[in-house]
Amino acid sequence: MVTETTAVTLRPLGQSSLSVSPLGLGCWQFSRGSGIVGRYWSNLKDADILDIVRVSLEGGMNWVDTAEIYGGGKSEEALAHALDQLQQEGSLHAKPLIATKWWPMLRTAKSISSTIDERLTCLGGRSIDLYQIHQPFSLSSIASEMKAMAGLVKDGKIRYAGVSNYSAQQMVEAHRILQQYGLTLVSNQVKYNLLHRKIDENGTMEAAKELGISIIAYSPLQQGILTGRFHKDPSQIRAVSRMRRMQSGLDEKSLARSKPLIDLLSVLAEKYRVTPGQIALNWLIHVHGDTVVAIPGASKVRHAEENIGAMSFQLVRDELEQLNEASWAALK
Ligand SMILES: NC(=O)c1ccc[n+]([C@@H]2O[C@H](COP(=O)([O-])OP(=O)(O)OC[C@H]3O[C@@H](n4cnc5c(N)ncnc54)[C@H](OP(=O)(O)O)[C@@H]3O)[C@@H](O)[C@H]2O)c1
C-alpha cells in the first residue's frame, strides 16, 4: 500500500486562483450522526476526526469539503476543532483551503446571505474559499442565488462560488449569471466514479471542460465499493444502512456485475503495489486531465492513509482506457 507522499502537484480549481491537490478530504463523515443526512454515518470520536484530518493534510491534501447540512454545522465545527488542535501543535498543515455549502431546500436565496455568518462561526472564523449551492432544489431561481453568491464575494465573506448536483444546463446558467457580476462558476460537485458515470452521458462533463469549470467528484469510491472490500467479504453489506445500500447499489447482484472491474483494479493494484481503491481514485484524477478533483471521505485513519497514497503514482493512458472500458461494461 502506498502511503508516503512525494510532492503532490497542485492544479487550478476552475478559473480561480485556488490551487488544490487532486484529492481533498470529504467531511460528511464528521456529522456526529446528527441531522437529516448526518445519520448516514456512525458518530466519530474527536480523536478519530483529528487523526483523519492530520493524516490527510500532512499526507498532501490541501483542501477540505464540508457542508451546513452535515449535522447542521457539526461537521464544520468538528473540522474547525481539529484544525485548532493542529494549529496548537504547530503543524504546517493547519490551514487548508475550505469548501462548504449552503443547503437550499425550502429556502430562498435571501438565506444565503442571512446564514453566512453562522457558517463562518461554525468554521471558527476561518474564511470560506469555495461556497457551494448544495443542490438545485430551492424556492428561488438560479439567478437570485447567483446574485446572492456574487454579493458574498463582493463583501469578502467568501472567495469563490460553486454549485453541486447541477445539471449541465443549470451549471451553464449559473456560470453565465456569475459572469454578469464579473465572476465565473468555479466548480460543480457531482457524484462521479468508475461505477457512476452519469455526467459523461448527460453533457455535464463536456460543458465543464468547455467552460473551464472543475468537476469535484463526490462518492469517488462509490462509498467503499471500489476498494473491493464488499466483493471480498459480502457479509460486510449487512453492516451498512439500507439507505446507503440503496444509494450505492450495494447488493449481491450489482457486486457480481462489477466483479470484472474490481478484478482489473486488483491486477493494476498489484502492478503498482497499491490497493484497488487507490487505482480507482487515480483513474478519477487523471482520466480527464486536470478537470476532475475528488473528495474521498474516511471514517478510519487507515482509510485516510490509503486514500492520500492515490496521489503518489500515475496510471498510463492505456490503463486509464482499460478501466474506462471495464467501467462501461459494469454499467451496462
Ligand atoms: N454534494 C453532495 O451532494 C455530496 C453527496 C455525497 C458526498 N459528498 C461529499 O463527498 C465526500 C465523499 O463521498 P462519500 O462519503 O459519499 O463516498 P466515498 O468517499 O466514496 O466513500 C466514503 C466511505 O467509503 C469507505 N472508505 C473510504 N476510504 C476507504 C478505504 N481506503 N478503504 C476501505 N473503505 C474506505 C468508508 O466507509 P465506512 O465508513 O463504512 O468504513 C467511507 O466512509 C463526503 O464526505 C462529502 O464531503 C457530497
Q: How would you characterize the overall build of this protein?
A:
The chain has 332 residues and is α/β, with parallel strands linked by helices. It has one domain: TIM Barrel (Alpha-Beta Barrel). It is built from 14 helices and ten strands. It has an eight-stranded parallel sheet with strand order 3-4-5-6-7-8-9-10. Strands 1-2 form a two-stranded antiparallel sheet. Helix 6 links the parallel strand 7 and strand 8. Helix 1 packs across helix 2, helix 11 packs across helix 12 and helix 11 packs antiparallel against helix 14. The radius of gyration is 19 Å and the shape is globular. The N terminus is likely disordered. The structure holds NADP nicotinamide-adenine-dinucleotide phosphate. NADP nicotinamide-adenine-dinucleotide phosphate (NAP) binds next to helix 13.
What keywords describe this structure?
alpha/beta; disordered N terminus; binds NADP nicotinamide-adenine-dinucleotide phosphate; 332 residues; eight-stranded parallel β-sheet; TIM Barrel
Radius of gyration of CA atoms, rounded to a whole number: 19 Å
Number of helices: 14
Provide the CATH top-level class.
Answer: Alpha Beta
Number of strands: 10
Identify low-pLDDT runs: 1-5
What compounds sit in this structure?
NADP nicotinamide-adenine-dinucleotide phosphate
Principal-axis shape: globular
In spatial order, strands of the major sheet run: 3-4-5-6-7-8-9-10
Q: What average pLDDT do the residues reach?
A: 96
CATH topology: TIM Barrel
Strand content: 5-15%
Distance between the termini: 31 Å
Main sheet properties: 8 strands, parallel
CATH architecture: Alpha-Beta Barrel
Helix content: 40-55%
Which sequence of SSEs, written as H and E, runs from N to C?
EEEHEHEHHEHEHEHHEHHHHEHH
The helix-and-strand class reads alpha/beta
